[in-house]
Each structure stands twice: as C-alpha cells, then as structure tokens.
Design goal:
With 477 residues, the protein is α+β, with helices and mostly antiparallel strands. The protein folds into three domains: 2-271, 2-Layer Sandwich (BirA Bifunctional Protein, domain 2), CATH 3.30.930.10; 288-393, Rossmann fold, CATH 3.40.50; 406-474, C-terminal domain of ProRS (Translation Initiation Factor IF3). Helices cover 35% and strands 27% of the residues. It contains 14 helices and 25 strands. The chain has helices at 12-22, 39-58, 72-75, 79-85, 111-121, 166-186, 233-238, 262-271, 296-314, 330-339, 350-355, 379-404, 412-418, 432-442; strands at 26-28, 35-37, 62-63, 69-71, 91-95, 98-106, 130-139, 153-163, 193-196, 208-215, 221-231, 241-243, 249-251, 253-260, 288-292, 320-322, 344-348, 357-362, 371-375, 406-407, 423-428, 445-450, 458-459, 466-467, 469-474. An eleven-stranded mixed β-sheet has the order 3-7-8-14-11-10-9-22-25-21-20, sandwiched between helices.
Length: 477
C-alpha cells in the first residue's frame, strides 16, 4: 500500500490525495467539487463531532436544525453578507416543475434564516441569551476543490447566539474560540494560534472575526475554525429586538462560529507520513488493532486463546479491532492499518502466547524503536498509558515543527524568502493597502493577529511605518 503513496517530499498535494483515498476516508463524487465521505472517514468526523458537541453542551448550547433552502431575499438583507457570498451561491429557480416565485439559495451559512427565526422567538430580555448550534451541510460553489479542505458541499457545525449586551456577545465569541483551541490541542493534537482576522479577511457581515490557524506538513496555513462577533448587523437586518428591563426596545447582539470537515484534512496533513495516516488516539476510529500471527492448527489455537484474553481486557476500554482475516498475511495487515493510521497495533504470535505477553507497535514511531513486549497481565493499563503518550507526543512533534518554521524576519527581503519556508511573525501597520501589496508580491495573507501579543512597538515589515501589533503571515489553503 505505502509503495503506491506519492512521497510528501516529492509532491505534497498528490501525497495528501493519495492518503485520503487509500486510507478509505473519502472518494470523488460524480458531481464536480463534491465528495463521498466513506465509513472510515465518517467515523473520524463523528469523533471530531462528539468532541466538539460535548464541549458545546458543557457551555450551555443546545442543538437545533434549520432549513437547507433560504429565500434569496434573506441573503440580500445584509449588504456585506450578500457581497461576500454572491460568487459562491447555488440558486434554485425551479421546484416541482414550476418556476419559483422567489429563488432559493442553497445554504452557504445560516445567519440569515436563523436571524429570521430569532426575530420571532425573541421578545424580551428574559429570552436571552439564546444559545443554539446546528450540525448541517452547506454549499459554496468553489472553483478549485480538494477533498475535505475545500469542497462544494461540506459538513460542519455552526453556532448562533443572541445576547442582551455587546459585552456578553464579545465574551461568547471569545469563549467559543477557546473551545475550538482546546479541542484542537487536546483532541486533534494540533497546535493552533488563536487570533483576530484583519478587516479584509473577516467574515462577510461580521464586526470582528477570530480564528484558530494551524501549520500543515508543507508549512502552509489552514484556517481550522472561526468565531465571529456580528454586533447588531444581522439583528438590524432581521429586526431581532427585545424589551429590556426598562421596557424599551433594543436590538440583540449576535455571534456565529463554526468548524467543518476541513478538520479531517488538518489531522491528515499535520500528522501523516509517507506510510499514510497517523491518527491521534482521541479521534481514531480504531485505537488499537490486534493482529494474530500463526501457522498451522496448533499455533492458531494457542494464539486464539491469547487473542481472547486481549479482547476481554480491552473490549470495553478502547476502540478495538481484531483482524483475524485468514485471507491476508500479517505483513499485509500491518501495512493496511499503518495506512489507516491506527495509533497502536498489538501483535500476538505463538512465542508471545507462550510467554503470556504481546508486542505493542506504535504507529507514530516507525520500525523496531516503536515496538516492545508487554505482559498480558495489566495490559489494559499499559495500553491506555501508551495511547496517552502517543497523543501527547503527536502534539509536541507538531508544535516543534511549527515553532521551527515560524520566523521573525529582519526586513522585507528576508520576509519574502520566509514565505517559502513557513510563517512570518512580523509587525504590521494595519493598513489594508499594505496588506494587499504583501499578498500580491508574496501570495501570503495575514492568517491572524494573535491574541497573545508581546508588549512594545515596531515598524511594519512592508512599509516601515509605526506598528503596534504583530501578525502571522503565511501562504494558505
């Protein structure tokens, strides 16, 4: 299997597509730009979904569902929103064999339809805050697509909240950014940089957009999640008003935030290698795979008893798969499960059975260095501890990779060279024209203005004028 994967160093883009398909995550749809998420890929998405959903509910949010079709007039109510999304809209004009009285937009995002409903549901300050999330699909007509990273239709969650005060809404926006950061670090083992988007990069219709930015294995940036403070823009457009404690009408303050199946692509690109996927244990559909090794009936019976003991010890402890398929050799199975990124493999041969032990093989540590024998007695604890070590090591490795490729160039010439090697953490004057020129000259964008800023002032890396903030620049997906 691995022999068919294009090496990352040869063609990273081709490597990514090879791994996604050969690891059975997704395949191309007959509809251009769309993908079919296969069971293994969907199981990975379900684990991402579960990790996020648990955190949403812990912070007081509830799930609901809103329609896929949105009246086009709704999209047009918020000027910047329609301007931002018009090039990506899919429009339905015929339904039931008849031309529709009003065209319908296929959901690109749901601020408008949810704003319409919130206007009906919110009457008093007692109705607030309203904290709703939905798990849904959206459609954005992309010209250049790539499995998981950018497709015409994709899956995501989008949270939408309404609040009494501006301060509450801003607090909510940043709280959800923290939730995304925690998930990325703790579950996906991906180091991210939380920050604010520049004015030109913010969400259409937002007052302020925040993001978590991650570095992929080819040193490009990936926007892994966003949280938007919408101010009163959508509340005014959709008349979301409430009576306050002084019995006066006020417009609500709203937020929206989302993470998509793009996170699957991030996991592939941050952790994978030339042998395929390497999945963090917390998200892996299969955390441990058991591969019996035997020849003849006597060995098979002996090994089967040991496998049964492993099954009994681990079945309710980890997500376990016992690969006892007789039509495939152990070596073939090793390659298959390495391709699929299973964090830990347990090998059991007749000698292991005689010694009442098994061999553990870590996916993230290749060759003999990643293998060791452990006794069957106490196996559950040993496996759990090993998975925890793998989870932590994957994060540390990804963080070290990003830190080694994040630079502080001394001048613009060095800045331009840096864009071939990773991120630049540089002073920026805040001028949009300066930002545009940098993009035109280097193909790099401001990924974010990190929330954690060092005190002091500097000079803009491009124009040399005074600057009070530093930004992360990089080329992106």
């Amino acid at each position: 299997m691995a022999a068919k994967v294009t090496p990352r160093g040869e063609d990273y883009s081709r490597w990514y597509t090879d791994v996604v398909q050969m690891a059975d995550l997704a395949d191309y749809s007959p509809v251009k730009g769309c993908m079919v998420i296969k069971p293994y890929g969907y199981a990975l998405w379900e684990n991402i979904k579960a990790g996020l959903d648990r955190r949403f509910k812990a912070t007081g949010h509830v799930n609901a569902y809103f329609p896929l079709f949105i009246p086009l007039s709704f999209i047009q109510k918020e000027a910047k929103h329609v301007e931002g999304f018009s090039p990506e809209l899919a429009i339905v004009t015929i339904g039931g064999g008849k031309e529709l009285e009003e065209p319908l937009a296929v959901r690109p995002t749901s601020e408008t339809i949810i704003g319409h409903m919130y206007a009906k549901w919110i009457q008093s300050y007692r109705d607030l805050p309203l904290l709703i999330n939905q798990w849904a699909n959206v459609v954005r007509w992309e010209m250049r697509t790539r499995l998981f990273l950018r497709t015409t239709e994709f899956l995501w969650q989008e949270g939408h909240t309404a609040h009494v005060t501006e301060e509450e809404a801003i607090e909510e926006t940043l709280r959800m950014l923290d939730v995304y950061t925690e998930f990325a670090v703790e579950d996906a083992a991906i180091p991210v940089i939380p920050g604010r988007k520049s004015e030109s990069e913010k969400f259409a219709g937002a007052v302020t957009s925040y993001t978590i930015e991650a570095m992929m294995g080819d040193c490009k940036a990936l926007q892994a999640g966003t949280s938007h403070f919408l101010g009163q823009n959508f509340a005014r457009a959709f008349n979301i008003q409430f009576l306050d404690q002084n019995n006066e009408q006020q417009y609500a303050w709203t937020t929206s935030w989302g993470v998509s199946t793009r996170m699957v692509g991030a996991v592939v690109m941050v952790h994978g290698d030339d042998q395929g996927l390497i999945l963090p244990p917390k998200l892996a559909p299969v955390q441990v795979v058991v591969v019996p090794i035997s020849k003849g009936e006597d060995e098979r019976a002996k090994v089967s008893k040991a496998v049964a003991r492993v099954d009994g010890a681990l079945r309710n402890v980890v997500r376990l798969r016992i690969d006892d398929r007789e039509e495939y050799s152990p070596g073939w199975k090793f390659n298959e499960w390495e391709m699929r990124g299973v964090p830990l493999r347990i090998e059991i041969g007749p000698r292991d059975a005689d010694k009442e032990q098994v061999t553990l093989a870590r996916r993230d540590v290749p060759g003999r260095e990643g293998k060791r024998g452990v006794p069957l007695q106490g196996l559950a604890n040993e496996v759990q501890e090993t998975l925890a070590v793998i989870q932590a090591d994957l994060y540390r490795r990804a963080l070290a990779f990003r830190e080694a490729r994040t630079f502080d160039p001394k001048d613009y010439a060095e800045f331009k060279e840096t864009m071939d090697e990773g991120f630049a953490y540089s002073w920026w004057c805040g001028n949009a024209d300066c930002e545009t020129q940098i993009k035109e000259e280097t193909k790099a964008t401001i990924r974010c203005i990190p929330l954690a800023q060092e005190p002091g002032k500097g000079k803009c890396i491009h124009c040399g004028t005074k600057a009070t903030e530093r930004a992360i620049f990089g080329r992106a997906y």
